[in-house]
Amino acid sequence: MKNNPFLTVILLFCIQVLLVKYLDYTDFGMGEGVSLAFMCFFIPTVSVVLNLFLGESRYKKAFRYFTFFIVIISLLAFVALSYLGALGRAYQH
């Protein structure tokens, strides 16, 4: 896993999707904002940590660009999903 960080991030994404489905199935009382933040920022956080501790690897430069891409996409997704969630709650009232 340490030799190929892309594989680690893909596996973590699959684990995150399964965890969110399981928490939804068990009706775990995590707040809506906390759930959205967890879904949007778990993978970028792990990616940044992996990037810091990667050391010398042939994937270091490509993974650094991939990490920047994931962080930017997660910020945009969080803003868009927060806006759409607030818009949906406004239409409910």
From TrEMBL:
<keyword id="KW-1133">Transmembrane helix</keyword>
<keyword id="KW-0812">Transmembrane</keyword>
<protein>
    <submittedName>
        <fullName>Uncharacterized protein</fullName>
    </submittedName>
</protein>
<feature type="transmembrane region" description="Helical">
    <location>
        <begin position="35"/>
        <end position="54"/>
    </location>
</feature>
<feature type="transmembrane region" description="Helical">
    <location>
        <begin position="66"/>
        <end position="86"/>
    </location>
</feature>
<keyword id="KW-0472">Membrane</keyword>
